[in-house]
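name: query_chain
kind: protein
chains: 1
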Amino acid sequence: MKQNKPSARGGAHKTAGGPDTQRPWHHLPGGRFRNPAGSPVRSQAPVKCTLPFFARMVRQSFDTVEVPDGHVIPRPLAHRALSDHMVKQGDFLTWLGHASFLMRLNGKVILTDPYLTRYAGPAGLGPKRYVKSGIAIGDLPPVDYLVVSHNHYDHLDERALARLPGKERMTVIVPLRLGEFFTARGFKNVVELDWHDAFEGEGVKITALPVVHWSRRSGFDTNRTLWAGFSLKSERHHVFFGGDSAYGPVFEEIGKAYGPFDTALIGIGAYEPRVMMAASHANPEEAVAIGRDIGAKRLVGMHWGTVVLTAEPPFEPPERFMKAGRESGYTNHDLWIMAIGETRDLSDPWPANT
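structure:
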């Protein structure tokens, strides 16, 4: 970590950045950011594709999604299982839905991308969850580190943040220029990281890593804040949290520089139609390729099964993910499809999905 900077709002705003003698590739003139070199290019899809897509999304917003048995653990049971793991000493992982996980590494509780309320949008607008978060916000244990990958509404949930206790004690880890969002909302300890910068916590090292995505919170701020994945490393376990990403050559570079990883949390949903999504979200086969590239021993599918954002059937991603994983040499023990609200030990051997 480099020295603290005063934030624009006057709080204790920490940053690992500083004046660069040479601008990194992903820093553009004028203050915007771009994806790593060689990434797929996000371009304007033809109207003949976009109009049917958005019309379909509007229609689907009124549909009831049939949720298979076992996809969601009832909240009382989920809370009991989490409480049991909190009493024990080991590391664990709980899926709250979408890209939101609660995990404990080396005694520290980490919460990722807490989209925990109903709508992925402002003021009760936008896509609506068809399942609740796995654990109610009020039942979450005290959080030591809140890690947020970027500012899209299905990852940065302002209503959930307002209800999240412990703003004075937790440390928030975010990509560049996203810190003020949190200091303005009462979070006291905020750390901004550029790609490859690291925060050294107590027993956990958190490093921001490049991924292939973009940012926007309104119609006027596209790519004004950075997006990132993260390495979360303790003495016993090394986790890759992919945030939101398409596939690109950067993951092979991450594997060489930071791998191997014990556990990789990788998005497997929100990928159709490809003409619109290929530069934003990996499909299940590409998610497995990301895992291979970074040297991950075990893969956990996320960013699916929670809210309808795109055109693929809601419960197609895990089937394709498991098939692609087996074809790439992973065993069922190394491929995790979790139930929302489920808590699993981060230990060997892992239980197999069937």
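note: The two ends are 43 Å apart (CA to CA).
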